[in-house]
Amino acid sequence: MSLLPDMYGILQGIPTERIIKSAYFKASGLAPEKEVNPARDNCGVMWLAPAFPASGKYAQELLDVVKPLYRQYGFDFSGCIARMGDRTFYALFGIFFDRENTQESDRAIELYQNLVEVTQKSGYQLYRSGIPYWNCGNTESVGLINLLNSIKQTVDPEGIFAPGRYGIFGRKRKLKYATSSKRTREYTFGSHRTI
After folding, report:
1. b/e per residue, 60-74, with b = 16+ CB within 10 A?
2. pLDDT of 161-180, one tens digit each?
3. Are 46 and 104 in contact (CB under 8 A)?
4. Which fold has domain 142-188?
5. CA proximity to 50, closest of 12, 5, 93
6. How does pLDDT run across 18-69, given as a tens digit for each residue?
């Protein structure tokens, strides 16, 4: 229970040193007492953060999809689920690895990529993504992508802010879009290929 204020903060993008110290879990050295900096100290950590309807059913379905992948890739499962408002749960799953171990780093990246793919195929939208995966968006939801691109085009017509992040591009162009049935259709959205 003592971690709840820290977890609430990190789910809103406000990390605390107490939470950031968890990035040192597999690092070769201990976390410093002050000025915690996992990037500087070569810590290996990646976070996956899907959002879903506030229901135990959906939480269990998500865990049933995610946990086996951790075992498959040889990592300890690390995650929390928090209720954010009346209708939404946010999950925060961590992958901790030794960056100095090339094989473990490669497995961590593969695990992350598979987690993104599996959660999105299961209908769970990322509410936040790490820098290497800012181009990830729920591209299976054509209506959502069209709505988000329409908003982006209105607010940022020149595509200056976070271009292409989360699969949202703003500029309109015809693209081939693979539907979940693997057929290809053309839709007007984005300025980059999202599939």
Report:
1. eebeebbeebbeebe
2. 877 776 677 654 434 333 33
3. no
4. Vanillyl-alcohol Oxidase; Chain A, domain 4 (1.10.45)
5. 93
6. 777 888 878 777 777 888 888 888 888 898 999 999 999 999 999 999 999 9
